[in-house]
Each structure stands twice: as structure tokens, then as C-alpha cells.
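Cross-posting from the chemistry board since nobody answered there.

I work mostly on the small-molecule side, so proteins are not my area. We synthesized copper (II) ion and want a rough idea of how it might sit in this target. Sequence and SMILES are below. Is it possible to get a predicted 3D structure of the two together?
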Amino acid sequence: MLTRRNLLRTAAAGGFFAASGALLPAWARSANAGNKGIFEVSGNAFDLTIGHSNVEIGGRSGHAITINGTLPGPLIRFREGEKVTLNVHNTLDEDTSIHWHGLLVPFHMDGVPGVSFPGIKPKSTFTYEFAVPQSGTYWYHSHSGLQEQLGHYGPLIIDPAGADPVEADREYVLVLSDWTFEHPHKVFARLKKDAAVYNFQQRTAGDFLRDARENGIGPTFTDRASWGAMRMSPTDISDVTASVYTYLINGHATDDNWTAIFNSGERVRLRIINASAMTIFNFRIPGLPMTVVAADGLPVQPVETDEFQIGVAETYDVIVSPTRARPFALVAESIDRSGQVVATLAPEAGLVATAPLLREPPVLTHRDMGMDMSSMDHGSMAGMDHGSMDHGAMAMTDTVPQSHDHRMGVGVDNVAMVQVSRIDEPGLGLESVPHRALRYSQLRSLTPNPDTRAPGREIEIHLTGNMERYMWSFDGVKLSEVTGPIIFHESERLRVTLVNDTMMTHPIHLHGMFFDLVVADTDHKPRKHTVTVKPAERLSFDVTADHVGDWAFHCHLLFHMHAGMMQVVSVLPRVAGATTHTPHKGHEPAVPPSEEDIPTTETPTPDRQHEGHH
Ligand SMILES: [Cu+2]
């Protein structure tokens, strides 16, 4: 029974009214709770308390792990270059951590237990201190267990030291997330038992693969009747769907009608952060064009669009300038279109934008399954198993047959036999929308890339999985079986090529370094910390290994990471012993490179082997 004393105690703990608005931090409140969309730097010292809270989501009460008692957590906002102190108090009975997503901090401040620090023990405090050399829209979240799914995330904004290249009259932070009343460990256990548990259709990609194994790929592939009958199910696009998720904007379900207000003619900046555990979103504002001005925190040359797909952990800043005084719907639709969350952008509080109907679920194609033969003759299928065709390593290639020598076995149920460049595609399901949809190939950094050297070598990493057994990995090896880190050498410039052998879209995140996405031969490549890799896609980024240390590198779908789709990148110092690099638990101590291991930029040696994997 809820006595008054209990109520007071719970309220004092900060959580009880969390999602009702009263106790939400100002940035996350609706216009009717006083949010006018104008915020200032909030300081350079922050106290963050991690604890249990009850939250109300869509009128139902649930248990969350929160920061300072709210879901999402407080807005951390400071100025570029300033030294900040963040005291993180762990009131839980389990370890916790905070990772500052996208921030270039010294690696021991990066907050990944087992990689960059030991984690924050129960009932203890850890103090993070750093000064960052960047500005923009970022976020922070737990890197411990599945806490992120329980509400342990919040926005982080850094104002530029000088003038902001983006001018706006007011701004809102939109934190997109997915909430479940089921305990995440139970969700994960159910996925392990039956990957299609949250799917209600019959025929799946797994069925197709089983047919292919039993009957051979040829008959299965040419069986047009069965192919045509195979309607892909949402589970093949998202593991976890709206059947268990409530999608949120700033902690609010659609029924809350979270509202942002504007005056006609104003430039309104929206800082959109995908803080989901598992949900890639399509974001749009029907009737209102958006001008993208930043991606993953860093400014890009303005590009106007009507919709974009935002992978888990990505951020986009857009400017909108509504001139008509009417409500607009802010729509975040899950990639599988099993659900959406809608908020309102309106000239005054109290209006409700009309939510669009959910669109038809997208259907996976041959292209998504790595079987797009349209540009190849079937004769080349014979070469698909470790054939000898040249990748044209440094060239932009449109289609490439599979020839990578990574581990097969129970953890890998598919290889993309035909890898395709999809950098000029807007993302699954957005190919045929009747309006503009953003493509990575449209993005250009506002400023020239800081390092324009040609990459001295290339490594290729495959995104692999077994959908039926819910196994996820890089190169067929899950984290617990990896024998050593991926080695980068300090100050080297290298190209990392990712090949998605699965039929799912994976947002891949590298800690500690921004990378330049290879969208074209330009010195204004978009600089990102997370790249969303489409099914059967082959894409590359160039990166300068300028921060020595051990850095997590993983799929940002939480349950994929939890299943092992993660490795460690060790940036080794050029001069052995000259830095603070220390071996870490769970991985072999990194061996200092011998002279011949250090690639020189004078003699480019495209190298498709993975150092440290053999
Ligand atoms: Cu993934």
C-alpha cells in the first residue's frame, strides 16, 4: 500500500513523478510545463546520481535506472575547451558507468568497464575530469550490462568556444528512446531462445536460409514463387519491436503530446539524439522541410531534406523555419514500422498535431540479402566462396563479390555474396517515399577534414551473425572469444572497410576518434562517431589514430553488443613506453609494434588482414 510517508520518500528520491513532467529537467519538459526552448550553459561541475526510480510511461508505472531521478537524465551543457568535473555517485547494488558518447576524452575517462576503466562499484563515486576539443550535440549513457535499456541515458551539449556556426532563435533537444516494461534481461533471454519472439508473421529470412542450406542456394534463389511469397517480417528488420516497446521523445509517449513551441518565421534548432537501446528511427515533420546542419555533433554543409533515418547513437541537428501558425507532428517511426512516437511543434501549448498513420512495413530485397545479381552474371556465383576477385581496395566499388576470409561456423549464418555500396541510399524503407530522404552521400563536413593523407593501409571487418541463434559478432568471433585487440598505430591514417554480412542494419560506433566517412573523393568527408551500415552494404571510413589507448568498437544495438558484437581497438604509441597505455583485463597485453609492423605513409600497403586477429 502506498502510504503518504512512502510517497514522500519516493518523491524525495526523485523518481516518482519523473515522466509526469513536474520533476523532469527543464530541457525535457513540454511547453505546457514551461519549456520555451532556450537554454544556457549549465556549468562545468556536475553531480550525477545513478539510482532506481519509478517512472510513469504512457500512464503506466515502471521501474527504471535513472540519473538524478529522471528519464532521460539531466542536460549536461558546457563550453568547448572548459575543464569539466563530473562526480558520478552509484547508489545501485551493481556496477555502473557513464560513457560520454562521441566526446574525445582521454581513454581512461571514456567510461567503458573492462576496456578503459574498471567501472564504478556499488555505493561508490567516480570522478570524471576532462576538457574536450569539440562542440555540438552528444549524449551519455551507461556502458554496464543492460542499464541503458532501463533509462540510464541523457543529452550532452557543448557550446563552441567561439561563435556557433548555426544560428537559431530557440532550440529543443529531442531524445528518442525505446522503453519496455519487460526486464531487459528477460527480453534478451527470450531473443536467445527464439529470435522471432517479437514477430508475429510466419515466414522469415531464417526460413529462406534454411531452404538455401537444404536445397542449395541455386534452387532456392530461382524459386521465384517462394521468393515472391516470402514477405519479410518486422523481426528481420528489428529484433525488438513495438510489440514490447513504447517509443519515447524526451521520456514522453505519444499520448503525453510533448510540445515544443515556436513563433512564425523563427529559426528553430532541433538537436535530435537517438538514445534507443535497439531502435533505428525514421524522423520526419510532415509539411515542414528540415535543413541538416550537423551530424554526430559536428557541423555539415546545410542540406535540406524531408526525412532521415537515424541509427542508434547517431545525432542530427536540423533547422526548421515554420511560417504557418499551425501544429506540426514530430514523428519518430521505428525502422520496421511496427510503431512510432509523435510529439507536437506548435505556435502555442495545448495544440495537438495530427499523427500520420503508420506506413507499410518495408520489405527486404535481394539487395538486402546480399544476393543482388542484377549487375553480375550467375557464373560468378561460383567464385563466391573465397574467390579471388580483386576488391579494388582503394576504389569506390559498386558491387563486390564476397572473398573475405573470416571465420564461418555456427555464429555465422549468412555472407553477403554480393556486397554493394549503399552510401547513396537513404536507408531501409525510405527508398520509395514520396519526398526527399537524406543519404550519407549528401553530407559534407562544413570545414576541411583535418587529415587529408591517403590511408596507408586498409583493414576489412565483417559484421556477422546467426539470426536464429541470436549470435552477433565481428568476423564471426564474439567478444568473449576474441584473442586480441584490433591494432591501430598512433598517428597513422588507415581505412576501415565494413562489410555487413547480415540482413539487419547495424549502427557501428568507434570510441575515441572521429572517422571520415568515404562518401566521395573529397576533403570534406562527413566526420562521424557512428555509422549505420545497411544490409549487405560495403562501406569505408578513413580514420587517423590520434588518440593512444584502448577504445571500444561495437554495434550500438544494445543486445547485439551484449551478444558479442564488439571488439577493442588499441591505438599503440609510436614510441613504445612513451605513453600511459596499459594492458586491460580480458585481453592480451598489446605487444609494442616492431619496426616492420609500423606502416609508413610513403609506401602504402593495402592490407586486408586484421592485425591482432591471428
Ligand atoms: Cu548490430
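Reply from a structural biologist on the board:
Welcome over. Reading the output above for you: The pocket of copper (II) ion is lined by residues 472, 506, 555, 557, 560, 565 (CB under 6 Å). The CA atoms of residues 65 and 147 lie 7 Å apart. Happy to explain the C-alpha cell format if needed.
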